[in-house]
């Protein structure tokens, strides 16, 4: 285990098994469709890579990078898009794959934006759900793990751009982020 972690929350084995289970459910639900699967950079990327490899229908892969200032404090303004999609979402069934839903600011705004652009449907798939911290009226359609109010890193999730490459998810020691 990385020395900056307090404990491991989700091992590689648990992640692998649960991601497969959830991806297979999405695969069934979209069997007769050709969805555009949108990965949210950077946090969602490792989950995304594991998730899409379980899909069996024809899919197109695309990416967006967004930043949400204000989560945890007062969220104001619109979502900032740092990298937009290459593909047009008009008339498409979009599956958004994200690392974590916390206040819900990012995904509530992103979903509204994609629908505004004419997506036929928007489905939200998250690896983690910090449900007790929700401030916006948005839920994942598919979620792998509900977690408590702890700061976690690994498997794509970072603190200060560190720890994304860890193959498991762990709780960061408070002394590392001064919480
Ligand atoms: P929301 O907009 O408040 O739902 O926040 C979602 C974003 O907050 C995620 O995409 C993450 O980048 C970040 N985030 C929230 N909780 C954590 C955590 O425990 N570890 C790492 N990033 C987190
Ligand atoms: Mg993120």
Quick overview of this protein structure:
The chain is built from 4 helices and 9 strands, in the order E-H-E-H-E-E-E-H-E-E-E-E-H. It is of the alpha/beta class and 179 residues long. It is globular and about 50 Å long.
Binned, the helix content reads: 10-25%
Q: Strand fraction band? A: 25-35%
- CA-CA gap between termini: 21 Å
Tell me which ligands are bound.
inosinic acid, magnesium ion
Query: Over the alpha carbons, how many angstroms does the gyration radius reach?
Result: 16 Å
Shape: globular
Oligomerization state of this entry?
single chain
- Side-by-side strand order of the widest sheet: 4-3-2-5-6-7
Question: What class would the helix/strand composition place it in?
Answer: alpha/beta
- DSSP strand tally: 9
Low-confidence stretches: 70-75
What's the tally of helices? 4
H and E string = EHEHEEEHEEEEH
How confident overall, as mean pLDDT? Answer: 93
Largest sheet: 6 strands, mixed
Helix and strand layout, with pairings?
Elements: E1 5-10, H1 12-29, E2 36-41, H2 45-52, E3 60-67, E4 80-83, E5 93-101, H3 105-116, E6 121-129, E7 142-146, E8 152-153, E9 169-172, H4 174-177
Parallel strand pairs: 2-3, 2-5, 5-6, 6-7
Antiparallel strand pairs: 1-9, 3-4, 8-9
Helix pairs in contact: 1-2
